[in-house]
Amino acid sequence: MKQALVFQSDFGLSDGAVSAMYGVALKVAQDLKIFDITHDIPPYNVWEASYRLVQTLGYWPEGTVFVSVVDPGVGSSRRSVVAKTKSGHLVVTPDNGTLTHVQAFYGIEAVRLLDETKNRLAGSELSYTFHGRDVYAYTGARLAAGLLAFESVGEALAPDSLVQLPMVPAQREGDIVSGTIDALDVRFGSLWSNIPYKLFEGLNIPYGGRVEVSIRNDTREVYRNTMTYARSFADVNVGEPLVYINSLLNVAVAINQGSFSRAYNIGTGLSWKIAIRRAPKIVYE
């Protein structure tokens, strides 16, 4: 049985790169079903590729083949791999940290080195800058079509040999939970933290309760305010900020019908830290 083939990249859709990947895959098997996560990952942003992959992977059927191409080191000595997750999915990608979140949240059962001399589009041997088309889309399509077995991709590698991006776990200290801002809900500008609901739940803050949110970029505090902990955006007035639990069951911060990230010029990554506690009571004398 043929499996779904799912692409993501930083190529954008302003030229023919993604279309070429589709074409290569369909030349392998014209009845393949091909889908996209996104092709709007910021150029060279491997962290974003890793996050978007884990955001999506678990909702696809077992056996789905993912091709992730954010590859600043294309044409260099960096490895190409196919990883088999413990959830039964395959990921074709450069070994540059793209598998960081998948390994942390789903686990990787086995890895094969993708032999680029054997697993590539015929006639592309002199092309060193478009492995997304020549190697990854081609190999992903053959895997999805059942024309290439995972075990035949190349030699086995130890999963713990994969390149890993640094991650800082969320933590609780007393009445404060803290973590990093891992990603944005891009279109709407909400901040998605790595603080899991289970950790936040320990603060015993009810829906409708007030929380204090502090955001730092490295050591500089860029935001501090109190807001409502809400089930959803409509629980507060338009233009008001809120804390909520996002679709990945992590703590997030938003403005109802506004962009929190644009309003306060807030970014993502390990330098962006967020801390949340129950809002202190104000005593009027």
TrEMBL record:
Keywords: DNA-directed RNA polymerase, S-adenosyl-L-methionine, Transcription. GO terms for cellular component: DNA-directed RNA polymerase complex. It holds the Pfam family SAM_HAT_N. Residues 179-272 form the S-adenosyl-l-methionine hydroxide adenosyltransferase C-terminal domain. Residues 6-153 form the S-adenosyl-l-methionine hydroxide adenosyltransferase N-terminal domain. InterPro entries: SAM_HAT_C, SAM_HAT_N, SAM_OH_AdoTrfase, SAM_OH_AdoTrfase_C_sf, SAM_OH_AdoTrfase_N_sf. Belongs to the SAM hydrolase / SAM-dependent halogenase family. This is DNA-directed RNA polymerase subunit delta. It comes from Gracilinema caldarium. The lineage of its organism: Bacteria, Pseudomonadati, Spirochaetota, Spirochaetia, Spirochaetales.
